[in-house]
Amino acid sequence: MFIEVSYVVYLVVSIAMTVWVARTLSRTGKVFLVDSFAGNEALADSVNHMLVVGFYLLNFGYILLALQTQQDLTSLRAAIEFLSKKIGLVLLVLGALHFFNVFVIAKWRQRAVRAKEQLC
Predict the structure, then answer these.
(1) pLDDT score of 46
(2) Nearest to 94 by CA among 21, 13, 15
(3) Are 62 and 90 in contact (CB under 8 A)?
(4) Is 39 helix (H, G, I), strand (E, B) or coil?
(5) CB within 8 Å of 49: residues ≥ 6 apart
(6) Do residues 11 and 19 lie in contact, with contact meaning Cβ atoms separated by under 8 Å?
(7) In the prediction, which pLDDT does 39 show?
(8) Both ends of the chain: CA-CA distance in Å?
(9) What pTM value is reported for the model?
(10) What is the CA radius of gyration of the chain?
């Protein structure tokens, strides 16, 4: 019984966190993308959408692959430890992907700033 409940809790929490992080990054990152693409909002929106889709695909794929366990969850303690490990790994993946996205976008922005400076 503990394993089924743990799976459901893991999926609900992991998917909710992924959706929340993706929406937050999309909303707050738009200004940064517009600046990175020299004010081209259409391009920034397109890249933003592609980043969100990729973010979802990677995270949901990882969440589903990490779902399985060979561990017997015979107590509440074992279930809590299982959930903390699984959800903790999902949060680490979310954080790593976030920093990767920020790094890539920062590089785009640096390139845009250099190109703008060369035009002046």
Answers:
(1) 92
(2) 21
(3) yes
(4) coil
(5) 26
(6) no
(7) 84
(8) 67
(9) 0.77
(10) 19
pLDDT in tens, 64-95: 988 888 888 888 998 899 899 999 988 898 88
DSSP string for residues in 52-92? HHHHHHHHHHHHHHT--------SHHHHHHHHHHHHHHHHH
Q: How far apart are CA 108 and CA 30, in angstroms?
A: 13
Specify the number of domains making up the chain: 1
State which amino acid sits at residue 66.
A
Note the pLDDT tens digit of each residue in 91-115: 898 889 888 888 887 887 788 778 7
Range of the structural domain that residue 48 is part of: 2-119
Identify which of 33, 52, 53, 55 has the alpha carbon closest to the alpha carbon of residue 44.
33
